[in-house]
Write a structure and sequence with these properties.
Blueprint (H helix, E strand, L loop, with lengths): L1 H17 L29 E4 L8 E2 L9 E2 L3 E2 L7 E3 L6 E8 L14 E5 L3 E5 L34 E8 L2 E2 L5 E3 L2 E6 L2 E8 L22 E2 L7 E9 L1
Antiparallel strand pairs: 1-15, 2-5, 3-4, 4-15, 5-14, 6-9, 6-15, 7-8, 7-14, 9-12, 10-11, 12-13
Length: 241
């Protein structure tokens, strides 16, 4: 009996000596950078401001690199026929905040009602549309990854009201031989409601046919689409991840 107790005591001591201490699992390898959160719709301290007022129009160009012809004051408004606009800066993995408003006067239905889009890297579209009591194909309504994913819910408010997207985007990664290594992923929160939950993007937006990846650079401009409707944007800021 004494021998058994002695063996058990020895095992207990060995177990105690080999057991991990709390500090063994503490990670001190990277001290997080301090970022001050924004208050009252202000961006966080590390955000890149893309549009908060008229002076920020200098951050945008048309497709040819010329100054944007969209109306610019407290908001940035599509001028039909002037083309989509692009950021001068290039981006890959980002967190993007953008507020948008479709026209208060409803003059059409379906895809003709407040149509625009936010294009990550100028290729991957989050649809902007007046989808308040407005039926269209569901992978083409507001909050959709256009022609790829239906939003989880319809979180739209009435036309003429400001709405928001908070977008978390992981850019695709390509191999050295320019084949796809990792597809893009995206999460979208509309008006504080999750509408896309880390979905795998199938390729750049295409109106006809199935999307397919083609090699491109790791950083490209953000694009806001001109689609004939005078949609407005404001409070646009972005954080590189």
């Amino acid at each position: 009996m004494k021998k058994i107790i002695s063996i058990l005591s020895l095992l207990f001591v060995l177990f105690t000596l080999s057991a991990q201490k709390p500090e063994d699992t503490e990670d001190w390898s990277r001290r997080p950078v301090i970022v001050t959160p924004g208050k009252n719709s202000m961006p966080p301290s590390d955000a890149i401001i893309l549009y908060r007022g008229k002076e920020d129009i200098i951050n945008w160009t048309d497709e040819q690199g010329n100054p944007s012809k969209w109306l610019s004051d407290d908001s940035l408004t599509v001028v039909p026929g002037t083309g989509s606009i692009y950021t001068k800066m290039l981006f890959g993995d980002v967190q993007l905040h953008v507020e948008w408003r479709t026209p208060s006067v409803v003059s059409d239905t379906g895809q003709g009602r407040g149509n625009s889009g936010v294009f990550m890297m100028g290729l991957y579209e989050i649809q902007v549309l007046d989808s308040y009591k407005n039926e269209t194909y569901y992978n083409g309504q507001a909050g959709s990854i256009y022609k790829q994913y239906i939003p989880l819910v319809n979180a739209c408010t009435p036309p003429g009201t400001w709405q928001s997207y908070d977008i978390f985007f992981n850019a695709p990664v390509f191999n050295e031989d320019q084949t796809l290594k990792i597809p893009a992923y995206i999460t979208v929160v509309q008006n504080g409601i999750l509408v896309q939950n880390h979905v795998e993007i199938k390729g750049p937006m295409t109106f006809e046919g199935m999307p397919a990846y083609k090699y491109h650079k790791s950083k490209l401009p953000l694009m806001l689409q001109e689609h004939k409707n005078p949609v407005s944007y404001r409070n646009i800021w972005i954080r590189e991840l």
